[in-house]
Amino acid sequence: MVLSRTNPLYRQKYWLSLFMLCLCCFFNSVTSSAAAQSTDKPGEKSYFSLLTASPGKEVWSQYGHTGIRFHDPENKLDVVFNYGLFDFSSPNFIWRFVTGQTDYIVGTCSFFDFMLEYQMTNRGVTEQILNLTQQEKADLLHALLVNIQPENRVYRYNFFYKNCSTLPRDIIVKAIRGKVDYRWPGKFKSLRDEVHHFTNNSPWTQFGIDFALGAKADNKADLCSQQFAPDVLKESFSHAMIFNDSLGTRPLVLQTLHPASIDPELNESGSFKVGPIWVMWLVFLTTGALTVLEIRKKKQYHVLDAVLFAVTGLAGCIIFFLVCFSEHPTTDVNYLLLWLHPLHLLYAIALSIPAFRPKAASLYKAVNLPFQLFALAGTLFLPQTLHPAMYPLLLSLMLRSMAGYLNYKQLLKHE
Predict the structure, then answer these.
(1) From edge to edge, which strands make up the β-sheet containing 248-251?
(2) How far apart are CA 337 and CA 343, in angstroms?
(3) What does each C-alpha distance from 143 to 75, 152, 237 come to in angstroms?
(4) 54 has which bridge partners?
(5) Nearest residue to 70 (alpha-carbon basis) of 21, 27, 22, 35
(6) Per-domain residue ranges for the chain?
(7) Per-residue 3-state assignment (H helix, E strand, C coil) for 27-50
(8) How would DSSP label each residue in 223-239?
């Protein structure tokens, strides 16, 4: 019997198989690491290759993955050096992840286990065999063996600049005796454009990341910065040439193979999903209708304000935290704080106090209106791209602030 990927029994077997695979990989990583360290001189027929796994569906896999394969038939070695390992059980993991203080681990596994993981999840793998001299192979092997030592294997992860793609690039390039010229400028204008490309099929993930990324993510990104994504590194290597005065010019990649490919029949058919743009425009239309009704009935809808400002206030708390306390790159300058700030949450809470509602509530919204107007106009000149779903959210706040301003003017007239 063939099970559909949407069948609950299929999913149970899938996750059980994946768990067993991870368990096997854990034990095999110890064996692979010991085997790799058993030799410090690569054989004549040995080679290194860059492995690039295609993006997956989970949030953490949407950018793909990179590994360095070392295949040495003479010494019976076939291992993959992996810079993308982390330990969920480490103390304060969630807090450290939020603050940008996550530590990743360099480890090894057999090539068979590496391939099995991606074949089980229907992801493709591209292998680029590197055009290295025997001395460069020895230097690279030595550097990798030093990296996986217990005192060296842990590193401070950085999403854009120090991850499973950039570290393999750096250690490979450092081992090469010559200059690597990529001869390719990349294909993204900014890091935000690149993130949008890889999260295009996950609109809510993209929406959330856009909240976190500040203005620096819109700066022009050079190729080195773009290579945080494994697919970009792979394409960079395919164009690269090595220049050496004594050895001449040679391509960095000797041969490209595809040991695993995606089976289209196993992909789940796409279905319509309600994304953030639809939701936010619905919020705007609802806010607009209730605001018109409020003006006609001359009655304040404090519940509407409490919900709207509480949600935006919570978002503002997250942005404020990332700006002030997080070590994540490109989050320290975020112009969203002009109109999404923690004070909205305090305002929503204050609405539960009857004495606050008559005048102070309208004054708060009136004071916020100029900042919101400036933020809307700022989309034309501020160096930060606004996600399309943020426009209706901003307009919703502006509507409520405008209603508050008009109400405050009426209150002043009657004094």
Answers:
(1) 179-181, 241-244, 248-251
(2) 10
(3) 18, 11, 20
(4) none
(5) 35
(6) 8-178+248-262, 276-413
(7) HHHHHHHHHHCCCCCCCCCCEEEE
(8) HHHHTTSHHHHHHHHHH
pLDDT tens sequence for the chain (415 residues):
333 444 444 344 444 444 444 444 444 444 455 555 556 689 999 999 999 999 988 887 899 999 999 999 999 999 999 998 876 666 666 667 777 778 899 999 999 999 998 999 899 999 999 999 999 999 999 999 999 999 999 998 998 999 999 999 999 999 999 999 999 999 999 999 999 999 998 999 999 999 999 999 999 999 999 999 999 999 999 999 999 888 889 999 999 999 999 888 777 665 667 899 999 999 999 999 999 999 888 888 899 999 999 999 999 999 999 999 888 889 999 999 999 999 999 999 999 999 898 889 999 999 999 999 999 999 999 999 999 999 999 999 999 999 999 988 888 877 6
Q: Could you count the other beta carbons within 10 Å of the beta carbon of residue 97?
A: 14
Please answer whether residues 226 and 232 qualify as being in contact, where contact means their C-beta atoms are separated by less than 8 angstroms.
yes
Quickly tell me which residue has 């085997």 as its tokens. 35
Are residues 72 and 46 in contact, defined by beta-carbon separation less than 8 angstroms?
Answer: yes
Question: Are 107 and 25 contacting, i.e. CB atoms less than 8 angstroms apart?
Answer: no
- The Cα–Cα gap between 87 and 101 comes to 13
Q: What is the DSSP letter of 1?
A: -
**DSSP 8-state secondary structure symbol assigned to residue 386:** P
Place of tokens 């978002």: 315
How far is residue 387 from each of residues 75, 213, 232, 289, 403, measured CA to CA in Å? 53, 11, 23, 24, 25
